[in-house]
Write a structure and sequence with these properties.
The protein is an alpha+beta fold. Helix content is 26%, strand content 31%. It has eleven helices and 19 strands. The strands form three sheets. Strands 1-2-3-4-5-14-6 form a seven-stranded mixed sheet. Strands 8-9-10-11-12-7-13 form a seven-stranded mixed sheet, sandwiched between helices. It has a five-stranded mixed sheet with strand order 17-16-15-18-19. Strand 15 and strand 16 form a beta hairpin. Helix 4 packs across helix 5. The longest helix has 15 residues.
Length: 397
């Protein structure tokens, strides 16, 4: 009997979570399994069976994302992709991803995305990297907020109890609209995140929430007493600042937490202005830089016609033999299939990476994943596709 792909039912949830735990090396508690269930639509999942045994899983979330120009498109967030170690190199993952893509297409979601647990897998199925994850560390005792950027007293407060979810929900809706690459969240999403952060984890405290009228920060603390010389570690899980004043006020408060030696985070964008606000800019260090969101454009006209571009121009891109003319500028765009001579030639993954505007076409040309008609066309493409604010996504899915 061959490997069969099925759409699971709610009764399969426990088996799916068991498989996921074994594949990714984690143990899901009964409470976590129950808490995760409402977040997952089994109609969006596909499961590979070898007889009665699950040997592969993949699914997607119903999401939307912000494109350049604050345009929002629907997106399938591919997730829970795993294949049993006993069934590798048999095409199971490719079949599962294909089935999930078919489902995303049927739902008229023009874009698919994911976070890759490994960096060498997903370009084989049409994905390209579109954002970066920056890991940072701040030596708190070597710096402070510059005096001209410090907020008035009372600008930041702690959120507690029933105030947390409504505040996060309200601020996040505003924040995600100004950051290309970020996703929308429902009230249910925020309720799940707050519930998940309500207890200690891996030696870190429950999540605390700082709020400004135009932003919030969520963080955990790990105590390090060092025989009477405290140097706690704070991890900033999320920083959602809609305005520069909110950004400065929240960071000023974090830098003034008692007993803290180091603040680490994976939430700071590559172009975040924080170093320029600090007395010692060098105190903020980038300790790692990794790929973030991977994109697979499912409907080229809908996606590239939805975003805006930095200048008015017309670029023709040949993607795996099909030529697309993208004509637009700061006010909008259109994307149509043409037979014109291409300015750029590439495959689907690098083309998908251009959607958020965070990668220079010239970088792909240098990396031999794209070619340009001439130097002038490449210069135009670098200006046309890229954005002044780097795309960034703090949402994990």
């Amino acid at each position: 009997m061959g490997i069969e792909l099925r759409t699971p039912s709610g009764d399969d949830w426990a088996s799916i979570t068991d498989f996921d735990g074994r594949t990714f090396g984690v143990t899901h508690s009964a409470e976590e399994v129950e808490r995760l269930r409402p977040m997952h639509d089994m109609d969006r999942f596909r499961v590979a069976y070898d007889g009665k045994q699950i040997v592969g899983v993949a699914g997607s979330y119903e999401l939307d994302t912000t494109l350049p120009g604050r345009r929002i498109v629907r997106m399938g967030g591919v997730t829970w992709v795993g294949v049993a170690a006993t069934h590798r190199r048999q095409g199971v993952m490719r079949r599962l991803i294909g089935a999930v893509h078919d489902d995303i297409d049927a739902r008229d979601e023009p874009l698919a995305s994911l976070y890759g647990s490994e960096g060498g897998i997903y370009h084989h199925v049409g994905y390209g990297t579109a954002t970066q994850v920056r890991v940072t560390s701040i030596d708190v005792r070597s710096t402070a907020m510059r005096s001209e950027f410090r907020p008035e007293p009372g600008a930041v407060r702690y959120l507690e109890g029933d105030d947390i979810v409504p505040a996060l929900d309200r601020i996040w809706t505003r924040f995600r609209s100004v950051r290309t690459g970020e996703t929308g969240r429902s009230r249910t999403d925020h309720e799940y995140f707050v519930a998940s952060g309500a207890t200690e984890r891996n030696g870190y405290s429950a999540v605390a929430y700082l709020a400004h009228r135009d932003g919030y920060a969520a963080y955990r603390t790990k105590m390090e007493w060092n025989d009477g010389h405290p140097s706690h570690t704070v991890v900033v899980n999320e920083m959602a600042a809609v305005t520069p004043d909110a950004h400065a006020a929240l960071w000023h408060t974090l830098l003034n937490l008692d007993l803290v030696g180091t603040i680490t985070s994976r939430a700071i964008a590559i172009d975040d202005p924080l170093p320029m606000l600090l007395e010692n800019p060098r105190s903020l260090r980038t300790t790692d830089l990794n790929d973030g969101v991977w994109l697979n454009v499912r409907d080229v006209p809908k996606c590239f016609g939805a975003r805006t571009y930095r200048v008015d121009d017309r670029m023709v891109v040949e993607v795996d033999g099909t030529r697309w003319a993208i004509e637009g500028g700061p006010d909008g765009a259109s994307c149509t299939r043409v037979r014109s001579r291409p300015d750029l030639v590439t495959s689907h993954g690098p083309f998908s990476s251009l959607l958020y505007g965070g990668v220079l076409p010239s970088a792909f040309v240098a990396g031999r994943q794209m070619s340009a008609r001439n130097a002038g066309a490449l210069d135009r493409a670098d200006i046309f596709f890229t954005t002044s604010l780097a795309p960034h996504c703090q949402s994990q899915y």
